[in-house]
Specification:
Kinase-like_dom_sf, about 15% strand, 12 strands, alpha+beta, kinase, EC 2.7.12.2, 5-stranded antiparallel sheet, Protein_kinase_ATP_BS, disordered C terminus
Length: about 400
């Protein structure tokens, strides 16, 4: 082909291109960020796509946008949506795993329970399921998001409290000062008021490991495996289950008991947090401890170490005669809980600055906070510490 023929063909091609279809370029206002959720999932209408694949979310209302977070009792959640990260605890008949929702990036605690266990444990699990489903509306009770049953296994999806339990926290800080303890008590009492007077539930296993905390400064009651729903606010129970160390004298003696037995347990928990040790001295065996609870004088807060208000609060909780104990509603207005109001106690800062490895440190903008727990589980504590330093330097 001659040079002149080549130039002729090129000219014809340019003329066709000018008269043919044109490309539509997106405006500067249209960015990929418009279609991404905070967790990095591409979302357009009912289409969700991320590293785990593609999913179509159905909605009763075609105009409704797909949810960016999972809500309690969400029927769209399935076990296949959850990625297991690490076992974080063990309980009656099963384990607790930290899991991540593939489509929203949310973290949950997944309680996995095999049903080839004792009848009494199965009854406790059924009770826990019933209570968990009843108590999703209280900010001071751990939220149940969904329950599944498959091939002999019950899986309960629970709210993940990234600060761990009060027992974990005590291992780090040893003792908790009165102002922070008052703020913690307020939230626990609000949870008990909800259980006792709105849902007619006795917890019956209140202890430091069943009180959970998070980086937002929230304190929530968990683990209703041995709770009892009772028909009315005046009903009594005479069954003997729960953690013996924090059990009220009337329960150890096999007497009927009501909501007020939880108050004895609360008093022991608060006193332990303040002093750094369990209120009863170490005994030779389990039976000696039970005898001490029933036969010996009740523990008290040393008046030379604590405020009169704190000592009074402990006394109102730890009374051997159940009738002499104050209810959760009355305790919420106790002077010990109001004397530090003007200090504006910040539990969020206290929990996250304690040095506990279970804390989430918010060093980035709210939408991109740095989760120490999850980051360290994936990459190790050394890399995690380096990342924290970089985040602080930003």
């Amino acid at each position: 082909m001659s040079e002149r023929d080549a130039q002729r063909k090129l000219k014809r091609g340019l003329n066709l291109a000018r008269s043919g279809p044109t490309l539509s370029v997106p405006t500067q206002d249209t960015t990929i960020g418009k279609f991404l959720t905070h967790s990095g999932t591409f979302k357009d209408g009912d289409l969700l796509v991320n590293k785990d694949g593609l999913r179509i979310v159905s909605h009763s209302d075609a105009g409704e946008a797909p949810p960016t977070v999972v809500k309690p009792l969400d029927n769209n959640m399935s076990l296949a949506d959850l990625d297991s990260i690490k076992v974080i605890g063990q309980g009656s008949g099963g384990i607790v795993q930290l899991v991540r929702h593939k489509w929203t990036g949310q973290f949950f605690a997944l309680k996995v329970i095999q049903l080839n266990i004792q009848e009494s444990i199965r009854n406790q699990i059924a009770q826990e399921l019933k209570i968990s489903l009843l108590t999703t509306q209280c900010p001071n009770v751990v939220v149940c998001y969904q329950c599944f049953y498959d091939n002999g296994v019950i899986s309960i999806v629970l709210e993940f409290m990234d600060g761990g339990s009060l027992a974990d926290f005590l291992k780090i800080v040893k003792t908790i000062p009165e102002p922070y303890l008052a703020a913690i008590c307020k939230q626990v009492l609000k949870g008990l008021i909800y259980l006792h007077h709105e849902k007619h539930i006795i917890h019956r296993d209140l202890k430091p490991s069943n009180i959970l905390i998070n980086h937002r400064g929230e304190v929530k009651i968990s683990d209703f495996g041995v709770s009892a729903i009772i028909a009315s606010s005046s009903a009594q129970r005479d069954t003997f289950i729960g953690t013996y160390n924090y059990m009220a004298p009337e329960r150890i003696s096999g007497q009927k008991h009501g909501y007020i037995s939880d108050i004895w347990s609360l008093g022991l928990v608060v006193l332990e947090c303040a002093t750094g040790q369990f209120p009863y001295p170490v005994r030779g065996n389990f039976y000696e401890l039970l005898e001490a609870v029933v036969d010996q004088p009740a523990p008290f807060a040393p008046p030379d170490q604590f405020s009169p208000e704190f000592c009074s609060f402990i006394s109102d909780c730890i009374q051997k005669n159940a009738a002499d104990r104050k209810s959760a509603q009355l305790l919420l207005s106790h002077p010990f809980l109001t004397m530090y109001d003007d200090l504006e106690i910040d539990l969020a800062s206290y929990f996250t600055s304690s040095g506990t490895p279970l804390a989430t440190f918010r060093t980035c903008p709210p939408r991109l906070h740095f989760n120490y727990t999850v980051f360290s589980l994936y990459f190790g504590s050394q890399v995690c510490s380096q990342q924290m330093k970089k985040s602080r330097d930003v």
